[in-house]
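## retry 2 of 3
previous attempt timed out at serialization; input unchanged, resubmitting
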Amino acid sequence: MFRKILVTAAMLAAFGHAYASVDVNTANEDALRGVKGIGPAKAKAILEERAAHGPFKDPADLGKRVKGMGGHTVERLQAEGLAVGPAGAAAGPQVAASSQNKGAAVAANTPKGGATVAVKK
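## retry succeeded, writing output
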């Protein structure tokens, strides 16, 4: 029983972390400042660059276009929850596709007549 509770808590923590990411291409100043390592000046610089030249394509693009944000800084900010570019936008469809595939696998393994069989371990 304790093991089930522990697994459930771990899954909830993982889902919470997934939803905590901040997309640099859509975030406002307050959201950017919510990422550990981004202060008021860096948030303002990101917003000004995005307004002047459009959305960031990828982490390397962010590092090149915003002064003071090199590769290591961008990597550290990504670890803190900053999402950059198409990878963050494509995560939603990937999750939906994997959910559909799991449903198809369950349907394929269901006996004829639609009854499911519970197996106790």
